[in-house]
Amino acid sequence: MLDTTLCNSYLSVNLQTIINNMQSIQEDIGPDVECIPVLKDNAYCLGAVPIAKALCTYANVRTIAVAQVCEGVELRQAGLSAPAVLVLGGVPERLFPAAVEYGLQLTVFHPSTVYALEKLAAAQGKRAEVQIKVETGLNRTGAKPGAELGALATALAACPHVRTMGVFSHFSTGETKESPTAYRQFQLYQQALAQLQAAGIDPPQKHMCNSGGSDWFRASFCNAVRIGRRLYMDNQAEPLTPGTPGAVQEACSWRASVTNLRVVEAGDTVGYDAAWTAPRRTRVATVCVGYGDGLYYPLAEAGGPLLVGEQRARLLATCMDQCFVDVTDIPCRAGDEVTFFGQSSGGAAMPIQELGKFMHVEGVYFYSFLSPRVARVYEGLEP
Ligand SMILES: *Cc1c(COP(=O)(O)O)cnc(C)c1O
Fold this sequence. Notes:
Elements: E1 9-14, H1 15-29, E2 34-37, H2 40-44, H3 48-58, E3 63-66, H4 69-77, E4 84-87, H5 96-101, E5 104-108, H6 111-124, E6 128-133, H7 147-157, E7 162-168, H8 180-198, E8 205-207, H9 211-216, E9 224-227, E10 252-264, E11 269-270, E12 276-277, E13 282-287, H10 297-301, E14 305-308, E15 311-318, E16 323-326, E17 337-343, E18 349-350, H11 352-359, E19 374-379
Helix pairs in contact: 1-3, 6-7
Bound molecules: pyridoxal-5'-phosphate.
Pyridoxal-5'-phosphate binds at residues 38, 40, 88, 170, 210-212, 226-230.
Cofactor: pyridoxal 5'-phosphate
Pfam families: Ala_racemase_C, Ala_racemase_N
Binding site for substrate: 140, 320
């Protein structure tokens, strides 16, 4: 195991901010709608176990969603036995026994899954919990309303060891306010609910919205919403005013250090294959992380912004383990702190949403590359 106290950089994750954000979201969506944190991909690479524990303890979370069986098992093995754990994605059949053993809810969209689970659960003397996924337009996984959903309902009715706990679908354009596609998808989802009800299936949880939809599509909340991105940052296109209902704060900061300074002359190059050529005399800082740590390569290529100390600077290029920053116009010494996103230790802001807008990607995208070489440091809560 990597000794993370020896890592070149660290990601500060403020658990109190995440809990505050969860509470702000809950106040916004109202007491009758359950907020299901989506902690897939190791909670967007921030650390699923500490975040799940904090949310269960301080925000009374009852259901957690992950994408894969291994992620659900990790939560169970970490001692999280109380919350329901929903596996959102399609799963290879060889993992069904583990899902049943660890009491995970699998997502079903094909009758063969239901029959396989029935056999397993009956053999283990257990109930397998599942949620129905409805295909409404993303065309990833799901049963289409009509014949497909009908066949699934028939299978569920024939399998007494399989218990249906929910019905859900997923927007393909949830982040786009007033999206006509989202309205159409929700209509189809309602059709599916009606079809299932007519077949005698009316499970307790019904959910359609992810963070994007939760920002604007109140009519589609049903009785639960699935929230990933919004635990850590606001909607990038139209952030809510701080302090208004539902507004959230950025919860994470990634910080590293300057290790070298060099003045290069006009025409000199920096990095492999002359990644960057100096147009003028330039003071270049070398920083102790690179794309191997999770620095988004295109951000470096595009000359993205970052903080050196409390000051704005620009990336010039990145290697696997080290990157280059232009510090010609700002004070800088070896050992200075570098903040890629979030806040500097001194409180200067480098909003991740600004990086998202700059690169035309979602802010959470920048989390998803962070490697195990970046220490995760959990702050904000009393230990
Ligand atoms: C990832 C995912 C979510 C969470 O999405 P956010 O936009 O981060 O809130 C919700 N539902 C499903 C099915 C997902 O795959």
